[in-house]
Amino acid sequence: MERMETWREACLVPLERMKRVSDAMLHKMDVGLSETGTNLPMLPTYVTQQPSGKETGHYFTLDLGGTNFRIAYIQLSEQVSKVELRREAKWNIPKENMEGTADGLFGLLAEAFKEFLEQLESDGIPLNRDKIVLAFTFSFPMDQNALDSGKLLFWTKGFNIPSCVGKDVVVLLADAMHRSGIHGVVIPAVLNDTVGTLAAAQYFDETAKVGVIFGTGSNAAYVEEIEKIKKMRAKDYHSKHMVVDIEWSDFYTVELPIMSFDRKLDGESLHPGKATFEKMIGGMYIGEVARNMLLELIGDNILPAPSPQGKIFLATNDVIGGEQVAAICALQDVLGGELVALTERLGYDDETIKIAGPVIQEIMFLVSCRAARLAGAALYSVLRKTGRVGGVTTLPTVVAIDGSMFEHHHLFRKELCKSLAELVGPEAKNIKLQLSKDGSGLGAAIVAAVADLGAQ
Ligand code: BGC
Predict the structure, then answer these.
(1) Is the CB of 153 under 6 A from ligand 1?
(2) Which of 21, 306, 313, 393 has the fewest beta carbons closer than 10 A?
């Protein structure tokens, strides 16, 4: 079991290694604020005002970034920090639209939007069809030079539509709306989901300074002083601050515990050579990491050989999902639930399950711990960058977090909090990791409202 020992050592990422990963990220953050084209892009978002909670108005939001997209109609109340009305609908994105054409993807969004507007009207909600204000959450890296425009830099997660790269996604969406016969749509803001998550949290709490997604993909945004974003030419802002979208998906340092199974996963992925960090911490990949580890253990006879059907099953990409990894980690009884379901797919009999079950559960535990501890190191870098930790005292700070890994993977969440406590020390009690469920949609409405107020 020498191999298991090596994996334990790497996946349980010791404190010193987490610190080195964090130092490397912090250094790359500084470089990214001055230079373009690095693997930690540090993207200016043109979100310069922190919401006060006093924003009002009604807005539509469209949130695209994972395996489904959401459209919402949100009314912000006259009362401070109060959402008056929120109507929401969700659609799955067929795989062919994730890898097809720009018209296919944006046409799908526009048609759903049309359906949504009609539904609201038939429910008796009056709409001003001459001016439909829509804030667009687009959860991919964008090169922005204004709040209402963003050129896609590269696709991540399960998306790959080469013709969109370099295009302004606001224009693509607006054109699709026209083609679908929806007129009067104004898109005042396009933002990343991390930026929306942060804005939503700030609407309720001014100490929110960091927005994070630990979901299918992963990333964070934080409030930076404009003066420090050296690569930005225009500096004549009324505000001193701007939210920066870090885009850590592609972050790389030699300190990352990259193993043989990571390289295999990368080679078989939709974006080989990209998203190194996300492939170690994202919910889209964690099951694949585990599957590749199991394949290695079987290849080396550390785990018993599966049945012929089981072999075919395990050789298939994405048969183990993030939810399954989370469920297996949470099992008290190794011989129950999702673990038995998985071992049965491998064709193991009851006796074999008794031997293999604990090993498989440990694999799920190791991939989850590695993800959590690397995520903790990344979060620590962002907190140091904001100056909220690392000074004489740690300032009370809310870190708003959304995403399935944080919400549903209890071991991941527990280990993330633990790793942060190790890194920050006793003052970690001042850092509140707060679930901001579906915050990015609400945040988009708030960012649009802030822009509206500024324009008046
Ligand atoms: C994207 C980010 C996004 C994150 C979470 C990553 O794959 O590059 O822009 O914020 O996923 O959705």
Answers:
(1) no
(2) 393
Q: Ligand 1 atom 11: the closest Cα is on which residue? A: 217
Question: Distance of alpha carbon 301 from its chain centroid, rounded?
Answer: 36
* 445 within a domain of the structure (yes/no): no
Q: Do 97 and 236 lie in a common domain? A: no
Q: Tell me whether residue 269 is in a domain.
A: yes
- Structural domain including 366 reads 1-45+204-439
Residue 335 has a pLDDT of 76
pLDDT (mean) for 218-234: 91
pLDDT at 276 over 90: yes
The answer as to whether 447 is a domain residue is: no
**Would you place residue 438 in the very low, low, confident or very high pLDDT band (cuts 50, 70, 90)?**
confident
The C-alpha atoms of residue 426 and residue 429 are separated, in whole angstroms, by 7
Contact 197 CB / ligand 1 (< 6 Å): no
Q: Rounded to two decimals, what is the model's pTM?
A: 0.96
CA-nearest residue for atom 9, ligand 1, is 140
E-only strand ranges, 131-240: 132-138, 142-146, 149-152, 185-191, 208-214, 218-225
* Domain match, 270 and 371 both: yes
How does pLDDT run across 164-175, given as a tens digit for each residue?
A: 999 999 999 999
CB of 279 within 6 A of ligand 1: the answer is: no
Residue among 143, 156, 244 to mutate when testing ligand 1 (max atoms within 8 A of CB): 156
> How would residue 371 be classed by pLDDT, with cut points 50, 70 and 90?
very high
- Among residues 321, 320, 338, the alpha carbon closest in space to that of 329 is found at 338
300 DSSP assignment: T
Lowest mean pLDDT among 230-239, 272-281, 414-423: 230-239
Q: Is there an atom of ligand 1 within 6 Å of 218 CB?
A: yes
Atom of ligand 1 nearest to the CA of 157: 7
Measured from the Cβ of residue 171, the count of other Cβ atoms closer than 10 Å reads 14
| Mean pLDDT for the stretch of residues 369-388 | 96
Mutate to test the pocket of ligand 1, among 63, 93, 151, 247 (most ligand atoms within 8 A of CB): 247
Nearest CA to ligand 1 atom 3: 139
CB 197 within 8 A of CB 440: yes
Task: Tell whether 333 and 421 lie within a shared domain.
Answer: yes
Number of domains the chain is built from: 2
180 CB within 6 A, ligand 1: no
Distances (CA, A) of 114 to 70, 124, 439, 448: 13, 16, 23, 20
How far apart are the CA of 358 and the centre of ligand 1, in A? Answer: 33
Question: Tens of pLDDT along 43-75?
Answer: 999 999 999 899 999 999 999 998 899 999 999
- Position 455 pLDDT exceeds 60: no
> In this structure, is residue 157 part of a structural domain?
yes
Q: From its phi and psi, is residue 211 left (phi > 0), alpha (psi between -120 and 50) or beta?
A: beta
